[in-house]
Write a structure and sequence with these properties.
With 580 residues, the chain is mainly alpha-helical. It has 27 helices and no strands.
Length: 580
């Protein structure tokens, strides 16, 4: 009898162990460990080796660390990267917070126009934004500097984009859209009762903003600052296009040079990547600390909460003019320059001679070029596949984290969010080490790009699915389980249809990112697997500015269409605002 009871006990425990839920979370944990922990472990292991990946033999050494960090030039690169990242972060944070405040919390006119313009940096790939500023502020041929010579008789440039301030301006205006989105969400969900109380007590608008509004938003400000800083230190486009000619190399260009120069030194690139890993991991830790403060600053009570707008009086017109002028200068002008250049056989200063040469030949070349066609097809295949995989994996992870009490869900959340701290360059070097060491046959194919984008942007997809999952009531899931539905059936037939709008938003955003980023595909791509961003880089190295501009306009139209779909879906959700 005792033996039968023990047998039944262990049979029941085995059945629970092999349940769909436990198998599901086990699969998700194993998948994330393979995608994240193994590459990071490989790059750390490779930094202590004296043999390249895939080569038998070799030993352990600190020689690469001595060479990397014993070189005096390394500390100059560290200073360049720090000043560049900090400056761009401050610019993006101030601009993004200001624009978010006037669009979400004030009655400033032209808010719709401001919102559309501030979205352009998110839509336009960074390589296009950077090249546009080369056409505007190049010392010899830039439009503004050329105008200074022709119209003002200046001998030197008015402004030089190939400088540290130029790099900060270009990068800061490129990432301010991220800062805007994060801060707009914080302003949108903050109860204005405390602000109204301060103003009732006699405090003016600016005193209230400084002493009440911004302190309440401190966790959001800290979290936004850290995420934007991580994005800036991993940036490749601006340091490569502007920093190298200006003599301001950054960590991203340093790693790129060690990987792309023949003979390439992957051990040295792994050693350089350790700096990125340490800084980004520290930033991620501080981000978690900042977001953990949110409970201390909670102002939404659920009782009579309706966000209202502040009446700025006549000042609203001045603020609207300042905001639109800034956005036209930082966003609209680069786009107009690309549009103008796309109709020219080669870049030249506007005038009658240039207008007589306007042509559609660059668009024709883009539509017929085999290089562009192949890169576009590769981008669509990899982008669509990685975006689909990311949103479905994110939906499953979000369900486990939010709607279950399963063991391991906190570890699952930490693993899924960790790649946001790993720069694209580090991810690329790590994947090279993994797939040149293990004979899996992924290196040099589209699969390695798929794995890179899926791993890198899984955390982005999770932000969208998290928001949608919180709107699904637990009773719906319980009703499905009571009806006898299995874990997979509940997920695909109940959960997925309910959170489909959020999944669609995440899918479109991840897909658009695969068209934008350059750092990851330039490291792990191949001639046959070239992505569109790498094709643009090749055109830039050949000086084909008109072809680049035509491609920029076509990509802009495509990505705007994707963003419009995402905006239409997202507008169905969120807290409605009232006017005052």
């Amino acid at each position: 009898m005792i033996r039968m009871e023990l047998l039944d006990h262990w049979r029941l425990r085995l059945k629970r162990l092999l349940s769909w839920q436990n198998l599901g979370i086990g699969f998700l944990l194993a998948m994330l460990a393979y995608l994240i922990l193994i590459p990071i472990g490989m790059i750390i292991w490779g930094s202590f080796r004296d043999a390249p990946p895939g080569v038998e033999g070799g030993g352990y050494t600190l020689a690469k660390y001595v060479y990397a960090y014993g070189n005096p030039n390394f500390y100059q690169v560290a200073l360049n990267t720090t000043f560049f990242a900090v400056g761009a972060t401050l610019l993006a944070l101030v601009a993004g917070t200001f624009l978010a405040w006037i669009t979400e919390r004030t009655n400033t006119p032209w808010r719709g126009l401001i919102y559309v313009l501030v979205m352009f940096p998110i839509i336009i790939p960074g390589i296009f934004h950077t090249i546009a500023w080369v056409l505007i502020l190049s010392p010899s041929a830039g439009l503004i500097n050329k105008a200074g010579v022709l119209w003002l008789g200046r001998e030197g440039p008015i402004l030089d984009v190939f400088s540290l301030p130029g790099m900060i301006w270009v990068q800061g205006t490129d990432v301010m859209g991220i800062s805007f989105l994060l801060m707009a969400a914080a302003f949108r969900t903050m109860d204005p009762v405390m602000e109204e109380s301060a103003q009732t007590s006699g405090a003016n608008l600016w005193y209230t903003l400084r002493t009440v509004t911004l302190p309440l938003l401190l966790p959001a400000i800290l979290a936004t600052t850290l995420l934007v800083f991580i994005r800036n230190i991993e940036a490749f486009e601006v340091p490569a296009v502007l920093g190298i000619p200006a003599g301001y190399p950054a960590f991203s260009t340093l790693i790129w040079v060690t990987v792309s120069t023949i003979p390439r030194d992957l051990n040295l690139s792994a050693a350089f990547s350790m700096t990125y890993l340490l800084v980004s991991s520290a930033g991620l830790y501080l981000y978690y600390r900042a977001t953990s403060l949110k409970e201390r600053f909670t102002t939404i009570t659920g009782k009579g909460y309706r966000p209202t707008r502040i009446n700025l009086g006549r000042t609203r017109y001045i603020i609207a003019i300042i905001a639109t002028a800034f956005l036209f200068l930082s966003v609209g002008l680069p786009l107009l320059v690309l549009l103008y250049t796309s109709f020219l056989p080669y870049f030249q200063f506007p005038g009658q001679e240039a207008f007589d040469r306007l042509t559609l030949s660059q668009y024709k070349w883009i539509l017929e070029a085999s290089m562009v066609r192949r890169a576009t097809i590769n981008n669509l295949i990899v982008g669509t596949g990685s975006a689909l995989a990311a949103v479905f994996a994110a939906a499953a992870i979000s369900w486990v984290i939010i709607r279950t009490r399963m063991r391991g869900r906190k570890l699952l959340d930490a693993l899924a969010f960790a790649p946001i701290a790993f720069p694209g360059m580090v991810m690329g070097v790590a994947l090279i080490w993994v797939y040149l060491t293990f004979p899996i046959g992924v290196y040099g194919t589209l699969w390695i790009l798929f794995l890179g984008f899926f791993t890198k942007y899984l955390c982005i997809a999770m932000r969208a699915t998290h928001a949608s999952m919180t709107q699904v009531h637990q009773e719906l899931i319980e009703a499905s389980e009571v009806s006898g539905a299995s874990w997979p059936r509940t997920f695909f037939q109940v959960i997925v249809p309910l959170i489909l709008p959020g999944m669609l938003v995440g899918f479109i955003y991840v897909l658009s990112l695969t068209f934008k980023v350059l750092g990851l595909p330039i490291l792990i791509g191949h001639t046959r697997t070239q992505m569109l961003a790498v094709a643009i880089w090749d055109l830039y190295e050949n000086g084909s500015f008109s072809k680049i501009s035509a491609l920029a306009i076509l990509m802009f139209i495509f990505l705007v269409s994707l963003a419009a779909i995402a905006r239409a879906v997202a507008s169905r959700f969120g807290v409605k605002q009232s006017q005052s």
